[in-house]
Amino acid sequence: MREKILTFIEKNSRVDLNELAVMLGVDEAAVINELAAMEKERIICGYHTLIDWDKAGVEKVTAMIEVSVTPQKGMGFDKIASGIYKYPEVNSVYLISGGFDLMVIIEGKTLREVSQFVSEKLAPHDQVLSTKTNFILKKYKDHGTVMAEPSKDERIMMA
C-alpha cells in the first residue's frame, strides 16, 4: 500500500484522502495512518506546490550551479553540502557523478543577486574548488508537469 500511496501523492498531493482510500480498497483511516507513519519516518519529507512564476508576474531567476569540492576526511561530501544547503537562497543540493561533485539550485530576484550569492557565499568555502553557474531561461517540464504552452500548428492547410 505504501508504494501506491507514494506514487499517487507524488503527482497530486492534494488528493482527497477518502478518494485515495476508495482507489486503494482500504478505509480512509488506514490511509491517514500510513501517511502519518511515512511523515514520521521522513519517507514523506514535505508537500510542495509547483508554481509558474512567470505567469504569476513575479520576477525570479533560477540557477543551477555546478560545484567541484574537496571532500573532507571522514565526512566525505556531507559537511560541505550541509554548509551549502543551510542558505535560504538554496532550493536543492545534489551529490552527483560526472565532471563536478554537487549541483546546487538557487533562486534570486536578479542575475546580480544570484551572482553575488555564488561569489560571496558559495565560492569562498574552503572546500570549494570551482563553480559554474547555469541560468534557467525557460522551464518546459518540471517535476513531471509540462510548464510550456502547447505549440500551435500555424501552417495553412492546402486542399
From TrEMBL:
Transmembrane segments: none annotated. GO terms for biological process: response to amino acid. GO terms for molecular function: sequence-specific DNA binding. One of its GO terms (cellular component) is cytosol. InterPro entries: Dimeric_a/b-barrel, Tscrpt_reg_AsnC-like, Tscrpt_reg_AsnC/Lrp_C, WH-like_DNA-bd_sf, WH_DNA-bd_sf. It comes from the Bacteria. Residues 65-138 form the Transcription regulator AsnC/Lrp ligand binding domain. PANTHER family: LEUCINE-RESPONSIVE REGULATORY PROTEIN (PTHR30154), TRANSCRIPTIONAL REGULATOR AZLB (PTHR30154:SF34). This is Lrp/AsnC family transcriptional regulator. It comes from Agathobacter ruminis. The lineage of its organism: Bacteria, Bacillati, Bacillota, Clostridia, Lachnospirales.
